[in-house]
Amino acid sequence: MTARKTLPEASPAPKRASIAGFTLTEGVHAAGSALPWHTHPGATVCLVLDGAFTEESAGGKLLCTPSTVKVMPAGEPHCNRFEYGDTHGLLIEADAARADAIRPYSGLLEERVAFEGGPLAALGRRIYREFSRMDTAAPLAIEGLILELVAWGTRERQTQGAGSGPAWVVRAREILHDDPTGPMSLGALAQAVGVHPVTLARGFRRTYGCSVGEYLRHLRIVEAARQLHDTDLPLATIAASAGFADQSHFSNVFKQQTGLSPSAFRRWVRTR
């Protein structure tokens, strides 16, 4: 990911563009703010560029970071809480005609689903760069990238398979959420849910679209971001309490997932 050291200032009139049946809207939400329960008339794809937030819907709660690409069907009620500092994002909404044109090839826009990292997050960054540039070629590039993102998401869902996965996969995820900062190996987790480690590794990726390790690192980064925002603890202390082997590893992973180093993230959330 390309790191940005500062966020654009919030504006009463957010930047917006309408391109080939898609409306793109850039926004900055202040730390501690919230969006009450609401809906969008069209299906949306949310790209988090900086910061993090929590979304609640009928599907439960979802933590969204710059590694998250989130899809929400048209008319789906949800609310958002910006608990981890200011959040900068891009919302892509498909109008009814464009969604109808996509439907024969993909049902992705009719699903409530989120993806972590990988090609979809990279495509999201490319869409934002074209949106920021907005020269005469940008609309063509943006349309193509959005369709590519939908295609990648469709293939990811096909790989994951339908439904929430076997009970032991769901239980493994619950264990990770219960104690994301504690010591955990794939073997110990597999033993806890009663399957072979290879079975767990394959089933987890098929169901959630990432490895057990990637999912656990995401949870630990969210916890570290909370501590950076809420406490004055040294980075080494936060790294250890969030479950990282050392401060160097923590700093590298944090920057990969958020675009900022831990110290830059702390300065940013404290000065805005």
Structural description of this entry:
The structure is a single chain. With 272 residues, the chain is an alpha+beta fold. The chain has two domains: 16-160, Jelly Rolls; 167-271, Arc Repressor Mutant, subunit A, CATH 1.10.10. The chain is built from ten helices and ten strands. It has helices at 96-102, 118-133, 138-160, 167-178, 186-193, 197-208, 212-230, 235-241, 247-258, 262-271; strands at 16-19, 22-29, 34-38, 44-50, 53-57, 60-64, 68-72, 78-81, 87-94, 113-116. The strands form two sheets. The protein has a six-stranded antiparallel beta sheet with strand order 1-2-9-4-7-10. It has a four-stranded antiparallel beta sheet with strand order 3-8-5-6, with no helix packed on it. Strand 1 (16-19) and strand 2 form a beta hairpin. Helix 5 crosses helix 6 (197-208). It starts with 15 loop residues before the first strand and ends with a helix.
Shape: globular
Whole-number tally of structural domains: 2
Q: Report the sheet-strand fraction.
A: 15-25%
Architecture per CATH nomenclature, i.e. the level-2 architecture of the largest domain: Sandwich
Estimated helix fraction: 40-55%
> Can you summarize the main beta sheet?
6 strands, antiparallel
Uncertain segments are 1-12
- The topology string of helices and strands comes to EEEEEEEEEHEHHHHHHHHH
Could you give the count of β-strands? 10
Tally of contiguous helical segments:
10
Structural class: alpha+beta
